Give the backbone structure.
Amino acid sequence: MHDGETDRDTIVVQGDQVADPEALAQLRNVLPGETFVEIPKALPRFAEGS
C-alpha cells in the first residue's frame, strides 16, 4: 500500500474541513459521521501519476 491507501480499497485524504454553509448545503447523500475536506484541484491528477 502507498501512503493514504487503506485495506478497504479506499484512499484517505487530508485537507481543510469544509465549513462554508453554502458548499455544505449542495452536498447530497451525506451519511452520519461523514466529514468533508477541500483539496487542491490538481491533487487527484498528481496522485494518478504516483
